[in-house]
Amino acid sequence: MNAYVTLTYYNETSNYTTIETCECGVYGLASPVANAMGVVGIPKNNNYQACEYDTEFTNTKKPWIALIERGNCTFSEKIQIAGRRNADAVVIYNAPETGNQTIQMANFGK
Questions:
Q1: Regarding beta strands 2-11 and 16-26, do their DSSP bridges make them parallel or antiparallel, or are they unpaired?
Q2: Ranges of residues in the chain whose predicted pLDDT is under 50
Q3: What is the rounded CA–CA span in Å between residue 38 and residue 68?
Q4: Inter-CA distances, 41 with 50, 64, 99, 109, Å
Q5: Among 28, 49, 81, 84, which one is most buried in terms of CB atoms within 10 A?
Q6: What are the residues facing 7 on neighbouring strands?
Q7: Which residues pair with 36 in a beta bridge?
C-alpha cells in the first residue's frame, strides 16, 4: 500500500513555513497502516542507519518519528531499535547515492 508523506518545516532564513506532500513511500507488509504525526528524530553521532542496539536519537519527545537511512541491517532491526526509544512511527529512506527506488519491506517481528 502506498504511503503519503507530508513534511512541514519552518525556514528561519525566509521566515516561512513550508509544507510538502508526496506519494513517495510504501507501508511495510506487516506494519500497521495508520496516520502518524510528530517531530522527527534522527540517529545521533552520524549513525544514520541506526543499526546499533543502543542508538540514540536527536528527539524522543512524544509524539516523534524516527527518520533512518536504509542499509547495514534489516528493516525490522531498525524499527525495533526506534521502538525501544518509543518512536511513534519510523520512516526509512534511501541514501542520496542509492537512488529513489521504493521497495516494500518485509517487517516481521516485534
A1: antiparallel
A2: 109-110
A3: 15
A4: 11, 7, 23, 23
A5: 81
A6: 20
A7: none
C-alpha 38, offset from chain centre: 11
Nine-digit cell string for 17: 513555513
Q: What domains sit in the chain, N to C, each tagged with a CATH number?
A: 29-98 (3.50.30.30)
Q: Can you read off the three cell numbers belonging to residue 6?
A: 507530508
- Give residues with Cβ within 8 angstroms of 57, minimum separation 6: 41, 42, 43, 44, 50, 64, 66, 82, 85, 87
Residue 57, Cβ density class (10 Å: 0-12 exposed, 13-18 middle, ≥19 buried): buried
The total number of residues written for the chain in this structure: 110
- Which pLDDT score is estimated for 79? 92
Q: Which residue has the cell 511513534?
A: 88
pTM: 0.81
Residue from 87, 34, 92 nearest 62 by CA: 87
What does the pLDDT read at residue 83?
A: 94
